[in-house]
Specification:
The structure is a homodimer. About 5% of the residues of chain A have low confidence. Chain A contains eleven helices and six strands. Chain A has two domains: 141 residues, 3-Layer(aba) Sandwich (Rossmann fold), CATH 3.40.50; 66 residues, Orthogonal Bundle (Arc Repressor Mutant, subunit A), CATH 1.10.10. Helices cover 53% and strands 13% of the residues of chain A. The first copy, chain A, is an alpha/beta fold. The radius of gyration of chain A is 24 Å and the shape is elongated. At the A-B interface, strand 6, helix 6, helix 7, helix 8 and helix 11 of A face strand 6, helix 6, helix 7, helix 8 and helix 11 of B. The first copy, chain A, binds a DNA duplex through helix 10.
Chain lengths: 220, 220
DNA sequence: ATTATCATCACCATTTATGGGGAGTCTCCC
DNA sequence: GGGAGACTCCCCATAAATGGTGATGATAAT
């Protein structure tokens, strides 16, 4: 079976060595490189022949930090599997890392034994979080998910009429005025009137703005 | 202090009575009505003078179920705070309820004592889930959030060039070709070329489609 | 009864977007 | 040294969206 290739990035060489040692105890995984700065990670991965199944990434590093690296992957559309290995267990940090597309998040304090599990899980395309991070995530979930927007938006949405809502939905479905008119059995003029009304009420610049408003406020 | 008004909807009258009894033991909460079918709930809330801070809603009910009721609120853009009170602890059910905008989810088996807490939390605009639901949600979270799309899309995204990616982003920011051209120091013609290319590659019909693609695939 | 809002449609002018070409430079790879 | 792609720009024509103004009937609220 092909081994899982892992690249380790941490500004403390001792830590890199430590992780490498732990990883090498497992026959299914092998180290294929390491970096001490974010810049080194980016340089390494920018070379076509350099590939790793999983990247263990510290956040705090000199010359480009872990976030910079994640942003680099996102911009270059490299779907690199990354496990953040950090001391931070702050919600904002975790959320930022998640939104930047990391696959796993393991805190240094709760690590050690779990890093192998994390690598194997992430290599399979699953996600992995250490227990303390799980706790934090659940909290986030409980307090935020499906929170239906804030006051200002709520007021705006309530000011939308049924027809406007309908048109908004169809706009977000990529339909043009003609198609919407047919769908709703109305004249194109009428649809255009609703378009204008939506642009005004939602304070956006064009149809894209209407559609984006719809997704942001879960109106579709 | 104003009391929290609660409407209870469950097809088993005994259960309605039971919940009412429990609720009435708390001086901050009072029952303002009940329903035995989903249709009754919709009828009740469609009358302008009928209002409740919190709706306790069963899923299984004759003549329109709990989901129908949630869909009704969503369509009518009524931001009703709803606590689902159900026997189901199935992930799909919970997700569906959440996506339909419920604020809390309490299973019947783990309920009783917690329903008061749930009502108070939800009344404040917070979310509330019973412990068993929390467990299920965390599982979901761990396995699904930030899953970076599926294969087909991944291939398409990788086929996008850097410039196309940039233009896509600006389109999603509601900018028109002229603005994008200025921003990128290019001619409008060039931006239009990228627009056409994006429409083709993403197989969408217009700019709205491009923007929606961007959000769906977390490219912005 | 009067006001207000919604729903519906129209005409106008202008700006943007879309669809189809073509075409030059550049770099990277075989 | 040829080819593929990326990046850049242009022309043309048509379709679509935006902005402004106005108008009618219906319904709901005060």
């Amino acid at each position: 079976m092909k081994k899982i290739n892992v690249h380790v990035a941490d500004d403390h060489k001792v830590l890199v060595d430590g992780i490498s040692a732990v990883i090498n105890t497992d026959s299914e995984i092998e180290i294929c490189g390491y970096s001490l700065t974010g810049q080194q990670v980016i340089d390494w991965f920018s070379k076509k022949r350099n590939k790793a199944d999983v990247l263990i990434l510290d956040i705090t590093m000199p010359i480009k930090d872990g976030f910079d690296v994640l942003r680099y992957f996102k911009e270059k559309r490299i779907f690199q599997k990354v496990i953040i290995f950090s001391s931070y267990d702050d919600l904002k940090i975790v959320q930022e890392a998640l939104s930047l597309g990391c696959y796993g998040y393991v805190t240094k304090k709760s690590a050690g034994e779990h890093i192998i599990d994390a690598i194997k899980a992430v290599a399979k395309g699953e996600q992995y979080f250490s227990d303390d991070i799980k706790k934090i995530l659940l909290k986030t979930f409980t307090n935020q998910v499906t929170s239906t927007g804030d006051l200002p938006d709520k007021i705006i949405i309530e000011s939308l009429t049924d027809r406007e809502l309908e048109v908004l939905k169809y706009i977000a479905y990529e339909m043009n005025s003609g198609e919407i008119a047919e769908k709703m059995s109305l004249s194109v003029s009428t649809i255009d009137t609703y378009r204008k009304s939506l642009l005004k009420k939602l304070n956006v610049k064009n149809s894209v703005g209407i559609a984006m408003y719809a997704v942001r406020n879960k109106l579709i």
